[in-house]
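Hello forum,

I keep getting stuck at the same step: I have a sequence, I want structure tokens, and every attempt I make locally crashes halfway through. Rather than fight my setup again tonight, could one of you with a working pipeline run this one for me? It's a single chain of 141 residues.
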Amino acid sequence: MSDMTLSDLSEKMRDIDIAMLSTHTDGGAIAGRPMSNNRQVDYDGDSYYFTWEKSRMVDDIKKDPKVALSFQGKKAFSVAVEGKAELSTDKKEFKEHWTPDLDDWFKDGIDTKGVVMIKIHASRIHYWDGEKEGEVKLKKH
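Reply #2:
Ran it on my machine without issues. Output:
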């Protein structure tokens, strides 16, 4: 067992651009899709993603906000996150988490019609770092 802190873990997660975001979909199936975290992993365990409001993923989250994230880093470093997703269309919140790379996907930036931000509040984080593994305890939201 390893004693990585949330701060240590968050720093290592910043180096992983793509996470697999899994939702519960029709009939109890699990749907996963790659999402860029834009290096926005806060020390409190929250992470942020942008997508289209009229997407299957957003519909899934509206029905069941329990989601999972998986990150695969370098040298056998990986992270599994369980959490609750919250949807936002607040441009002020967008601005706090927007990065220039997002303009490639959303041509009018934070003013692009139909954009939604997914904020995931982690409730459980388990990590593996080579032979070491551990879990970071988080406060429930």
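The mean pLDDT is 88. If your local run keeps crashing, start a new thread with the error log.
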